[in-house]
Specification:
alpha/beta; Rossmann fold; 9-stranded mixed sheet; 11 helices; Type 1 glutamine amidotransferase; Class_I_gatase-like
């Protein structure tokens, strides 16, 4: 059995808000996907932003750590951020494979000596478009199975602005240089994506509604009703992906986003290429 530590990047308020619009927390979303990809996995859900968080299992006895997205900002600091940075550092120094999307990437880059902050090119809301491998990403196992260019769910203002020394930048697009990254610290290896391979389109829609003001201010939608209509289309496409080719065409959503197995490639690659080999050795 695999023992996977799934850390929710949100503080208590962020978890409650996410739960209210998605009917599950970010950690619960990840746990469901991890169990689907690895039926032998036991997921231990934790909330490291909380002061009273206690690990249910010692780090050396875990096979991996996964850190979810978050509404927090690394640059703002504070105990909720510091506690998550400490967990990330401890996990990597203990030799664990670590995966993170969005917030997880920003935390990993920060503790390894990089910098995360507001993306000077602006936010990505809904989908990150035309992601492609860098030279360092060509042949990297995190991106196995991805085509030469792909889209992926994305919701972020912040990003890795300065990668840490020695990091391998694996993929980027015209909005952001760091869409996928490998970071090594101690005996541990971090693989992560700024985009969200874990999110279904109905969750993207729900998160867009929460971010409506930011989407409008970024000039991506003229007003809140337009954003609501776009979110409704994403939701409807999620519920009937084969029956609504009109929506897929209008929204520019391809199979790399629509098909769960393809959308979640990076998570599956992480399990197959890093977690299982280490678990077998352990």
């Amino acid at each position: 059995m695999l023992h996977l530590l799934v850390a929710d990047g949100n503080d208590r308020a962020g978890r409650e808000t996410h739960l209210s619009v998605c009917d599950k927390t970010s950690a619960e979303t990840y746990a469901g996907i991890l169990r689907a990809l690895a039926p032998d996995a036991h997921c231990h859900l934790v909330a490291p932003a909380d002061a009273n968080m206690v690990l249910p299992r010692a780090l050396p006895e875990c096979d991996a750590l996964v850190l979810t997205g978050s509404t927090l900002h690394v640059e703002e600091g504070g105990p909720a951020v510091t506690r998550q940075c400490e967990l990330m550092r401890a996990a990597l120094e203990a030799g664990l494979p670590v995966f993170g999307s969005c917030w997880g990437v920003q935390v990993a880059a920060t503790i390894a000596g990089g910098r995360a902050g507001r993306n000077p090119k602006g936010p990505e809301f809904g989908l990150a478009r035309a992601i492609s491998r860098t030279q360092a990403g060509a042949g990297h196992p995190l991106l196995d199975g991805r085509p030469p260019a792909w889209d992926a769910p994305a919701i972020h203002d912040d990003a890795v602005i300065e990668p840490p020394p020695g990091a391998r930048i694996l993929a980027g697009n015209d909005r952001l240089d760091v869409q996928a990254i490998e970071i090594r610290l101690g005996e541990g290896v971090f693989w992560g994506t700024q985009y969200h391979p874990e999110l279904d389109l109905d969750e993207v829609a729900a998160m867009l509604r929460l971010s409506a003001q930011g989407v409008v201010e970024a000039g991506l939608c003229p007003d809140a009703p337009s954003l609501q209509a776009y979110a409704d289309s994403l939701r409807d496409l999620h519920h009937d992906p084969e029956g609504r080719p009109d929506l897929a065409w209008r929204l520019g959503v391809t199979a790399e986003v629509l098909v769960p197995e393809r959308r979640r490639r990076e998570i599956g690659n992480f399990l197959d290429r890093l977690v299982r080999p280490r678990a077998a050795r352990r």
